[in-house]
Amino acid sequence: MYLQRQFSDVSLEAGCDEAGRGCLAGPVVAAAVILPSDFTHPLLNDSKKMTEKHRNLLRPIIEQEAIAWAVSFITPREIEEINIRNASFLGMHRALDQLKIRPEFIAIDGNAFHPYPGISHACAIKGDGRFMNIAAASVLAKTHRDEWMMKLHEEFPEYCWNKNKGYPTKDHRLAIKKSGPCVHHRMTFTLVPDQLSLEF
Fold it and tell me: How confident is the model at residue 139 (pLDDT cuts 50, 70, 90)?
């Protein structure tokens, strides 16, 4: 599918996306990316439609060729305090705060956003599959988060975060039911549904 370069016609537009919103454990990771006008790559797409190999191949290319990029991490405790929706918005704001070049416009993946001070924005439903800068942000958010979950797996191998990355797979929920949650779980989420049965 052909991706448009960006949402607006301004020269410095930042695309924003997040990863990990639906997870039971670990942070929400948000990214903001400003791409040069001539950027293109045949693998670039919504990160969910890319293989892990292709995402990891593309990440250093985006980071090297972007005019500016940044990622931010919102912890499970912050998610519990302000809820997952607000945590996603906060993550995008923090990523934008870190950009070395201030964008003139912001394109957000999704249908809602808390306005960023002094910069106009637009929300694009499924924007990570439509615009290059949002797709690039989705790749950075996903790869940085996956890398983080791989590190956490070394400390808590019982949850198999090297495979499920904190998402609510059956194996992950069974591990929570068996071992209990840990400090990296989001305690305001339904970690183990009542109907989940243990199978050994």
Answer: very high
- Contact between residue 158 and residue 52 where contact means Cβ atoms under 8 Å apart: no
Cα→Cα distances 27→76, 175, 188, Å: 6, 19, 14
Distance CA 135, CA 124 (A): 12
Q: State if pTM tops 0.85.
A: yes
Distances (CA, A) of 24 to 43, 156, 169, 176: 29, 14, 9, 10
Residue 26, SS3 per DSSP = coil
pLDDT surpassing 80 at residue 64: yes
Q: Which residues contact 170 (CB under 8 A, 6 or more apart)?
A: 196
φ/ψ of residue 123, rounded to 5: -100, 140
d(CA 173, CA 121): 38
Per-residue pLDDT band for 192 (boundaries 50, 70, 90) equals confident
Looking at domain 13-179, its CATH superfamily turns out to be: Ribonuclease H-like superfamily/Ribonuclease H (3.30.420.10)
